[in-house]
Design brief:
Order of helices and strands: HEEEEEEEEEE
Strand content: 35-45%
Number of helices: 1
Number of strands: 10
Largest sheet: 6 strands, antiparallel, barrel
Distance between the termini: 46 Å
Helix content: 10-25%
């Protein structure tokens, strides 16, 4: 049974994309035959340019920290992330889905990232946790 809030979430996501999104370039990568070699560009998949995504800085949830500290009342465990992330509408990549290891260029700043993890988000979207890369990579 469909969730009655799916349409509202989809509309809100589209409006936040229109306001907050910035262009990114996605370069699909694949593992080389030699396990010691660097990953190679996957020529079978096109490079996706000017894909609008919402970029998020590394963050921590309020109350995150040590679960137990001596002499202090135990705290609630919380989620903390030292990785930036992007929110991506899957429809922007056609029938493809981003994969771990893909390279991403933030077009406005020239920053380069590698997809560390692809996480589910609200319907039709994924959250890609990113690792920073050197600009020479």
């Amino acid at each position: 049974m469909p969730n009655p809030f799916d349409a509202a979430v989809k509309a809100a996501a589209a409006s936040s994309d229109a306001i907050l999104a910035e262009p990114f370039t996605f370069t699909p990568m694949k593992l080389a035959l030699n396990v010691s070699a660097r990953p190679l560009r996957d020529e079978a998949i096109a490079i996706f340019q000017h894909v609008p995504c919402v970029f998020g800085e590394p963050s921590a949830r309020m109350g995150s920290g040590a679960v137990e500290t001596v002499g202090v009342r135990p705290e609630k465990p919380g989620h903390a992330s030292s990785r930036p992330f992007i929110s991506l509408a899957l429809s922007r990549l056609g029938d493809r889905r981003p994969e771990k290891g893909w390279l991403i260029l933030r077009e406005n700043t020239g920053e380069k990232f590698k997809v560390a993890e692809v996480l589910p988000s609200h319907p039709g979207f994924v959250r890609c946790d990113l690792n920073y890369l050197d600009t020479e990579t």
